[in-house]
């Protein structure tokens, strides 16, 4: 499983000739100089509807004629904006696709988008368990620390986890460190930090704390990859 980081919480995951992108916030991201037109994937998967996660979803889905996989209200919204195909799921639900499996987990956050002068509610936020080639990525989405992360770790063999560390809107580094221990991931990638001033954090310091706990982690710069 190859994972490439595209800033904020966006990951491109590929294995066995299949590629999916999670939370493709590219346009308008000050960290990123990537044209959404250059993204080639088999699916777009979303954790929730905030603009810094929903991002370029519809353009990428249209360019690739691929599905948007999301919580049902968010999937319906993407369809209304021109996504060619959507798969609306819900918390706890799983589906096997061609070459990968998606299961949505709990996340404690909110989910909405500003559409003109309207704030549109887009269902529950979620985490993602993505299994490809026999390996599983847990993308926690935007979330606070919550006790059932222990259960997620007990019920799943998590090879790699993407955990938010930005604080202010999500877990901070201290809570993310505890989450990493609970989920027992083989590898941890910090996400959702340093994009905007309120979420500035030291990713290297977080990974150093992981190592003190006997855990492995990687700080990925935009465009960098790790093979799990």
Automatic annotation (TrEMBL):
This is UPF0173 metal-dependent hydrolase AR543_08230. Counteracts the endogenous Pycsar antiviral defense system. Phosphodiesterase that enables metal-dependent hydrolysis of host cyclic nucleotide Pycsar defense signals such as cCMP and cUMP. InterPro entries: Metallo-B-lactamas (IPR001279), RibonucZ/Hydroxyglut_hydro (IPR036866), UPF0173 (IPR022877), UPF0173_UPF0282_UlaG_hydrolase (IPR050114). Pfam families: Lactamase_B_3 (PF13483). It catalyses: 3',5'-cyclic CMP + H2O = CMP + H(+); 3',5'-cyclic UMP + H2O = UMP + H(+). One of its GO terms (molecular function) is hydrolase activity. Transmembrane segments: none annotated. The keyword Metal-binding does not apply. The keyword Hydrolase applies. Residues 7-192 form the Metallo-beta-lactamase domain. Keywords: Hydrolase. Belongs to the UPF0173 family. It comes from Paenibacillus bovis. SUPFAM superfamilies: Metallo-hydrolase/oxidoreductase.
